[in-house]
Each structure stands twice: as C-alpha cells, then as structure tokens.
Amino acid sequence: MRTKKSLGQNFLRDKGILKKIANFAQIKNTDTVVEVGPGEGTLTEFILEKAKRVVAIEKDKRMVGFLKGKFAKEIKEEKLEIICSDILEMEMQNIFSPQAQKCTGSKNYVLVGNIPYYITGALFKKVLESENPPQSITFVVQKEVAERIIAKDGKESILSISIKVYGKPEYSGTIKAGSFYPKPKVDSAIISVRDINKNNFQKISEAKFFEILKAGFAHKRKFIIKNLEANKGVFDKCGVSKKARAENLKVENWVCLTKELQEN
C-alpha cells in the first residue's frame, strides 16, 4: 500500500527490529496496549502475541480497512479493537470504549507505537499530562530526539525534564533509516518511559512547574538565577549554584524551585 507523506508514514517491516520493540516495551499478558499508528500492522502482530488486549488507533482510513481485514479473527475474539482517529484529538481518559473496559476491567494501559516524527513532542505532552496517563510508553522516534530525552551529552532540555518529571526514560538502540519504507532522511531509535506517575506533583502545581521550567530555559546561556529573577536564598535551599544554567539542573532541582517559588 502506498504511504502518505502528509501523515509521516514510514513503515517498518524488519521482523527482528519489530520483535525488539515489542520486547523492549516489557508487555505482560495482563496488559492492555494502546498502539499509535499501526499502519500495516507489522508491530501489531508482535504486540498481540504478548498483550491481553490491543487498542490500535489509526488516522488513515485506508489502513483501517486493511487492518480490519488482516486481523478479522483477533477483532472477532475481542482481542483487538481498531479505532479510526487522530490520537492528538482524543481524550486519553476516554480512550477505552465500554466494550474494552468490559474486557480488561480497568483503564490502565501501556502505550506503544512507531509514530510519525512530527507528532513526537505533542504526543508525549498530551499523554503524560493527561488525567489518565499510561503506565509506560515505548516509541520509535528520531535518534536525535531520543538522545535529547536521555540527555546523552549530559545537558538537560525542556524536553528531557518534561519527560523525566513523570518517569524514567530508557534508550534501547538505533534503527537505521534503511530499515523503513520509504527511507527517512535520519536514523531512528527505540525509547521507553517507565514507571510513569505524577508523584512529583503532590505538593506543587503541574502548571506552575512548566511555567518555571520554560522561564528557566528562555535564555539558555544565562545563569538560571537571572532567568527566574529569584533570590539566592531560594537556590541555596534547592542546592542550585547561582552560576548554574538551566541545562545543569535535574528534575529534583526544578521540583524544589517550583515549591519554593510558588510559596513566595
């Protein structure tokens, strides 16, 4: 089937890599997996082998028809549900139909997908900040983006902190561009975010945290004390040097700064 460039479709057909993605997601036989952008269903096959149930969300109507034919047996057995929709327009807390909840008994889920590059940031933000975030996320993303998330160079970013405040990112390895059809211009990587929770927001405002984070990174080369216009005492309490830049701070520093600044 022909790909749609407008949807950022790059199909992955290497069974060895597809198996690696499914394994890295650490799917248990009691899990409900929400798969984003199943496309031809090549990864779906491996997820179905591991999960209790799969909810596949596909934006391309052509692919939905193809998938319903390919997985007719699994759909009939209620092991697979295919939803034709744009995940960025869906409410995550309403992602399960009454039938799906009947089959699984809960709204807990694991999120997996070989996603279009252009929705990476927006999708992470949407699902992590939602009322019903997944227990874990495993995505295929641009290699450069994966390296930024784990801060491979030792420098944190808005993206890396925005993810680490919710869970623990793990990098699995590179997928060469030639493994996809059509071949993208860059290599990709498999990344997981595990143990997702909102524990860091028990005593601080989620909105205030991101407000301070964005202000801190507004001028990356400036010392963060100048970006936040805060007094030195606040930084001393949080163990942050007055000569630190935003890229030097860890999640716990940002959480502490938020707590101190929202109380003053």
Overview of the structural elements:
- By secondary structure, the chain is an alpha/beta fold.
- It folds into 2 domains: 5-197, Rossmann fold, CATH 3.40.50.150; 201-263, rRNA adenine dimethylase, C-terminal domain (Helicase, Ruva Protein, domain 3), CATH 1.10.8.
- Helix content is 38%, strand content 18%.
- It has 12 helices and 9 strands.
- Strand 5, helix 6 and strand 6 form a beta-alpha-beta unit.
- Helix 1 packs across helix 2 (42-50) and helix 9 crosses helix 12 (251-263).
- The N and C termini lie far apart (59 Å).
- 37% of the residues are buried.
Shape, please? elongated
How large is the share of residues in beta strands?
15-25%
Structure summary, number of beta strands:
9
In CATH, the architecture of the largest domain is: 3-Layer(aba) Sandwich
**Which strand order does the major sheet show?**
4-3-2-5-6-9-7
Category from helices, strands and their pairing: alpha/beta
The CATH superfamily of the largest domain bears the name: Vaccinia Virus protein VP39
> Regarding CATH, which class of the largest domain?
Alpha Beta
- The averaged pLDDT comes out at 90
Major sheet characteristics? 7 strands, mixed
- Count of domains: 2
Question: Which fold name is given in CATH as the topology of the largest domain?
Answer: Rossmann fold
Uncertain residue ranges: 3-8
Amino-to-carboxy terminus distance: 59 Å
Helix percentage range: 25-40%
Helix and strand element order: EHEHEHHEHEHEHHEEEHHHH
